[in-house]
Design a protein that fits this description.
Layout: E1 7-15, E2 18-21, E3 24-28, H1 34-44, H2 57-70, E4 79-85, H3 90-99, H4 106-109, H5 116-125, E5 131-135, H6 141-153, E6 159-168, E7 171-180, E8 185-186, H7 189-198
Parallel strand pairs: 4-5, 4-6
Antiparallel strand pairs: 1-2, 1-7, 1-8, 2-3, 6-7
Helix pairs in contact: 1-2, 2-5, 6-7
Organism: Antarcticibacterium flavum
Protein name: 3-oxoacyl-ACP synthase
Length: 201
């Protein structure tokens, strides 16, 4: 099978109370708690998606990131999601464990899997394609690049959103990129690693 060339259409970072699109700040909030950042970003981006307020924090980060990433872009229903992180759903697992001391909350329990964020994104954007969530200690660009290329080369996805979405305590680190057949940035594991590390340094 001949391997095609693919491109990074756009990429988003969320960290340190800032949202970046293609390396440029699109929203920032100084000296605020993490929960306030999520609420203020929702308002500033004018998401108008009430379900957002019922989600766990990692799903909120996923919705914020894809809202910025998909802005002004037509998204095919066959767009796949390939995500990774180091902490799985630990943030929600802890909240669920705490709730078990009294009455278990079904609203928290439903978020005790890391891939729920992809379900929330798929519902929001009517995606009906493949999705995979990998747990690894650090950002693993070769794994994400290989899996994304397989989906694109085999025709199982028209596009792929691939990257890292991690949340531990009050620290969050989100990097997602939209990979398509056309674009300006050639897609490779090396480029994925470079774009992820850019804002981390």
């Amino acid at each position: 099978m001949d391997k095609k060339s693919f491109f990074i259409d756009s990429y988003v970072h969320i960290r340190d109370n800032r949202i970046y699109l293609n390396g440029k700040v699109v929203f920032s909030l100084e000296n605020t708690l993490e929960m306030d950042f999520l609420k203020q970003a929702y308002k500033r981006l004018e998401l108008k998606y009430p379900k957002y307020h019922k989600m766990d924090r990692i799903s909120k980060l996923g919705i914020l990131a894809t809202s910025v990433l998909f802005d002004d872009t037509s998204i095919a229903p066959t767009t796949a999601l390939v995500f990774s992180n180091a902490t799985s759903s630990l943030d929600t697992d802890r909240a669920h464990f705490a709730s078990m001391k009294e009455i278990v909350s079904p609203a928290i329990f439903v978020y005790t899997l890391p891939n729920i964020v992809m379900g929330e994104i798929s519902i929001r954007y009517h995606l009906q394609s493949e999705n995979s969530f990998f747990i690894s200690r650090t950002f693993n660009a070769p794994l994400l690049a290989d899996y994304s290329e397989i989906l694109l080369n085999t025709g199982k996805a028209a596009a792929v959103v691939s990257g890292w979405i991690d949340l531990k305590n009050e620290e969050y680190d989100v990097f997602l990129c939209l990979i398509k057949e056309k674009g300006e940035i050639p897609f490779s594991a090396e480029k994925l690693e470079q774009l992820y590390r850019f804002e981390n340094e």
